Amino acid sequence: MDKKLSTEPYKGTRDFYPEDMAVERYIFDTWAKVAESFGFERYDASILEPSELYRSKGAENEELVNEQTYTFVDRGEREVTLRPEMTPTVARMVAGKRRELSFPVRWYSIPNLFRYERPQRGRLREHWQLNCDMFGVDDVASDIEMIALGYRILLAFGASPKMFEIRVNDRTWLKLQLSDYGLSEEQMKAMLTLIDKRDKIDDFDEEAEKIAGKKVSLDFTTPNPEHRLMQVIEGLKALGIENVVISPSTVRGFSYYTGTIFEFFDTASENNRSLLGGGRYDNLTALFGGDPVSGVGFGMGDVTMRDFLETHSLLTKDVKTTAPTLAILPLDATHNLAAEVLAEEFRSAGVRTAVDLSDRKVGKKLSAASDAGVAYVIVLGEDEAASRSYALKNLGTGDETKGSAEELAKHIAR
Q1: Which of 16, 263, 405, 407 keeps 20 to 30 A from 24, CA to CA?
Q2: Where does residue 263 rank: exposed (0-12), middle (13-18), buried (19+ CB within 10 A)?
Q3: What is the pLDDT of residues 6-34, one digit of tens each?
Q4: What is the pLDDT of residues 142-159, one digit of tens each?
Q5: Neighbours of 404 (CB within 10 A)
Q6: Residue 123 near residue 166 (C-beta atoms within 8 A)
């Protein structure tokens, strides 16, 4: 006997049934609406990229490609990677059109991304992510705007500032403190990685000494008021954003960050994790030749976004399935074609309309329409088909309105 195929999706990926897709669309639509309210324009690109795009920054990215990506050789003997992140792609696109673009550029995208890693809460092998980036502005106001955008996105979902904390840091500040120790580039990377784990380990000082070959003393107190990091915090306060803290152990995993870095953390104990992360990267486009174009941006994943919404019970409103507005219920199969003709009249008038073609009794059809979130129904029998006068029932109130298809379509639109 042949082995039965599994009904489960590939490990680390998800199926989106209509009720799940309704949540996904709600997340995507809210992301897009807020990003566009800040003047960001939407872009996209292929999920396939040459693997060299991710290998270009040395050993760190070599490990990313070799161990954490879906990478293969295509039939043309080219090494290809399913994109694990979007920032290198947008940097490539900006570099390719730098002479034609009018800076500053504000772009956003909602790509699906792939990482070959162990699935766990908040992290899967495939996910979708809001990416927002601004290119061509060095001023601290651009850092402030990007953080404010992330803040406004969470508020648009109904979150309050007490539900999350904005952690900010600056790689320039960190590297300045490390500069006196004469560290090599590899030692510097190792030290930044260690600082990123500072709050999770007990032997930070010992590990830092091992990396540097000498005792390391770092000052994680507040930098002077002239430092860019303090300007970011003061700028956010001017915008009414107060849930901001300096977080010296926030380093971010990618080495291309050069200045301001930030993460948004859920403050709920049951979901105390990063929701959004990003920062300033001023040299990334230089990989493609020419003068570098400064950039600042962030990414926010759909998996962690949904976890946040569920943790704080924020999915109870504004989340609708794609149920039709109107369902036409033929009394029996002999009226199915007439129902399809009638449905076309309503669709032409802009009413989302479905026909129940099942062989269920009309009472069961009514129940099914109600369960699906349909707003109105019309039962179609011999009399209705002959007279072309129909009874429109509002499933929410129980009220009935009689009239022609044209009249009823206007009634629905009111």
Answers
A1: 263
A2: buried
A3: 999 999 999 999 889 999 999 999 999 99
A4: 999 999 999 999 999 999
A5: 13
A6: no
